[in-house]
Specification:
There is one protein chain. The chain is mainly alpha-helical. It is built from 19 helices and no strands. It starts with 17 loop residues before the first helix and ends in a 31-residue tail after the last helix.
Length: 494
C-alpha cells in the first residue's frame, strides 16, 4: 500500500447497504425530477411521439450501465469514473475524466438547488419569486442539504429512501388514476401527434432528436452508486445490481407516468403549440382539480431535494477520491474525514462553497443558469465516454480481466455499442441548433467544455498529481475482508 493513495489514515465506514446505494443512484435523477424537468420541453418540441425517445435512450443508457457495472465490480473504489479511467488508461487520462465528471456534478447540484427553490417557494406561499429570492432560497437549501449530508450516512439513507417511496407511490399512483379515470387521448397520438410545422421530424435539426437531448438528461445518475463504492457492503456484488436496477426502475416509472399524462392532456393542440407553460401541472389540475396543486408542489420539492442530496454526495466523494491521490490543490485538507462519522467534511464544504459562488453568479447574470443547464446535459455524456473508450481500448488490446460481474462473450460488442451510443448522443446534445435568442447559448456545451478544459489544465498544473507508471493498470485489485476498512490496492495495481 501507500503509493496508490489508499493510506490507512483515510478509512471510510461501510455503512451503506445495497438498498442505500440503489436509493442514492435512483434519487440522483428521480422519476419526479426526470419527468418534470423534461416533459414540457419534449412534448412542446416533438409532440406526443417524443415518448418513443424514452425507449431509445433507455436502451442506449442500459448499454452504458452494463459496462459501468462491469467496471465497478472490478474496481469498487470511491470516485467511480475517475478511478476506472485512471486504471484503464493512466493517471493523466483518469484525472481529466474525473475533472469532467466532478464539474458536471457540482454544476448539476447547483441547478438542482435552484429548481428545488422554485418549488419550495410555492409550497410556502411565495408566488412568482424574483431571481434574487430564488437564489437566496437555493442558498438555504444548499446549506441545509450540506448539514443533512454531514449528519451521517444512515440519516442520508433514510431521507433518500423515504423520498423514493413517496415519489414512486405518488408517480405510479397518479399515473394509474389518470389512465383509469381521466384518459382523453387515443393511443394513436403517440404516432400521429406530431406538432404542426415540425418539418423533417427525424433530421439533425428536427424535433425528435432535440427531444432526445432532454430525455438523455433524465437518464443519467445511475453511475453515482460507484462514487460511494468504499462505503458499501460487498460493493463488487451490490453495486452492479444497484446501477442496472436503478436505471431500469427509473425508466419504467418515467415511461409509465409520462404515458398516463400524455393520454390525459385535455387540449393537446395548446400543449404542442407551446401555449401551456407547464403541461404536467396543467393536466393534473384540470383533471384532478386545483386541490392537487399544493401536494404536487410538495412532492416535487421532496423529489428535487433528494436528487440534490444524492448529487452532492457523489460530488463530495469525487473530490475526496482526488484528494486521497494528492491530485488537487489542498489535498491534505480535502482528504480529512470527520472523526466520528468518517465523512469527507471538507470535501462537502468545498461543494457548498462552489455551489454558493455559482448561485451568486446566477443572480447577477441570468443567462449563467441557462449555460449551466445546457452544459450539464452534455458534460455527463462526455464524462461517460472516458471510461467507455478506456474499456474499449483495453479490450481491443486483449488486456481485460473481468471482476465479479462479467458480460461474458458479449463484453466487446456491448462496449462498442455503448461507445457509439454515447458519442452520438453527445454530438446530438452539443450540436449548435438555433434554439435561443442569444447565439452563444446555442454553443453552450462547447463553450462550457472549452472553459472547463482550460480551467482543468490550470488546476492540473498547480496540483501536479503523481503520474507514476503502472506495469499493469488493469490488474484486478484485492478487496480487504474487513467491512469497515477501505478497499486496498495490491502492489500489482500500483
Amino acid at each position: 500500500m501507500g503509493t496508490d493513495g489508499f493510506e490507512g489514515g483515510t478509512v471510510l465506514r461501510r455503512e451503506f447497504t445495497f438498498w442505500s446505494s440503489f436509493a442514492i443512484s435512483f434519487a440522483f435523477i428521480s422519476p419526479i425530477v426526470a419527468l418534470y424537468s423534461i416533459f414540457g420541453l419534449a412534448i412542446s418540441t416533438a409532440g406526443p411521439p417524443f415518448w418513443w425517445g424514452f425507449v431509445i435512450v433507455f436502451a442506449g443508457q442500459l448499454l452504458v450501465a452494463l459496462v459501468f457495472a462491469m467496471l465497478v465490480s472490478k474496481w469498487p473504489y470511491e470516485g467511480s469514473i475517475y478511478q476506472w479511467s485512471r486504471r484503464l488508461v493512466g493517471p493523466r487520462y483518469g484525472w481529466f475524466a474525473g475533472w469532467t465528471y466532478q464539474c458536471s456534478l457540482i454544476i448539476g447540484m447547483t441547478t438542482l438547488a435552484l429548481a428545488t427553490a422554485g418549488f419550495t417557494a410555492n409550497v410556502v406561499g411565495v408566488e412568482h419569486p424574483s431571481g434574487a429570492t430564488t437564489a437566496w432560497i437555493a442558498l438555504l437549501i444548499l446549506i441545509a442539504g450540506t448539514a443533512l449530508n454531514m449528519t451521517g450516512r444512515r440519516v442520508l439513507s433514510v431521507f433518500v429512501s423515504a423520498s423514493i417511496v413517496a415519489e414512486v407511490i405518488g408517480s405510479v399512483g397518479l399515473a394509474i388514476w389518470l389512465l383509469l379515470f381521466h384518459r382523453v387521448q387515443p393511443l394513436s397520438v403517440l404516432v400521429d401527434g406530431q406538432p404542426a410545422g415540425s418539418g423533417d421530424y427525424l433530421s439533425i435539426h428536427g424535433p425528435f432528436l432535440i427531444a432526445l437531448i432532454f430525455i438523455g438528461f433524465s437518464f443519467v445518475g445511475f453511475e453515482s452508486a460507484g462514487a460511494i463504492a468504499e462505503e458499501v457492503h460487498e460493493p463488487d456484488k451490490s453495486l452492479p445490481k444497484a446501477i442496472i436496477r436503478s436505471l431500469t426502475l427509473i425508466a419504467v416509472v418515467v415511461m409509465f407516468s409520462s404515458l398516463a399524462i400524455i393520454l390525459a392532456i385535455p387540449d393537446m393542440r395548446s400543449v404542442t403549440d407551446g401555449d401551456v407553460a407547464d403541461p404536467v401541472y396543467y393536466t393534473l389540475t384540470n383533471q384532478l382539480g386545483e386541490g392537487i396543486a399544493r401536494p404536487l408542489e410538495l412532492l416535487f420539492a421532496i423529489g428535487f431535494m433528494a436528487s440534490f442530496l444524492a448529487v452532492q454526495t457523489s460530488a463530495s466523494r469525487m473530490i475526496w477520491s482526488f484528494a486521497r491521490d494528492n491530485a488537487l490543490p489542498g489535498s491534505r485538507i480535502l482528504v480529512i474525514l470527520s472523526r466520528k462519522q468518517r465523512q469527507p467534511v471538507n470535501a462537502l464544504m468545498l461543494t457548498t462553497a462552489i455551489g454558493a459562488a455559482l448561485l451568486l453568479l446566477s443572480n447577477f447574470a441570468s443567462n449563467i443558469y441557462s449555460l449551466m443547464v445546457n452544459f450539464t446535459a452534455g458534460s455527463f455524456f462526455l464524462s461517460f465516454l472516458f471510461p467507455l473508450v478506456g474499456a474499449l481500448v483495453v479490450q481491443v488490446r486483449r488486456q481485460w480481466c473481468a471482476g465479479r460481474f462479467s458480460l461474458g462473450r458479449g463484453t466487446l460488442l456491448i462496449t462498442v455499442a455503448a461507445v457509439m451510443w454515447t458519442a452520438l448522443e453527445l454530438i446530438n446534445i452539443a450540436w449548435p441548433r438555433k434554439s435561443h435568442p442569444e447565439t452563444y447559448l446555442d454553443w453552450s456545451v462547447l463553450i462550457g467544455v472549452v472553459f472547463l478544459a482550460g480551467l482543468g489544465i490550470a488546476v492540473f498544473a498547480i496540483a501536479r498529481p503523481p503520474l507514476e507508471t503502472r506495469e499493469d493498470p488493469v490488474q484486478p485489485p484485492t478487496v480487504a475482508s474487513n467491512d469497515n476498512s477501505v478497499v486496498n490496492a495490491e502492489k500489482g495495481d500500483q
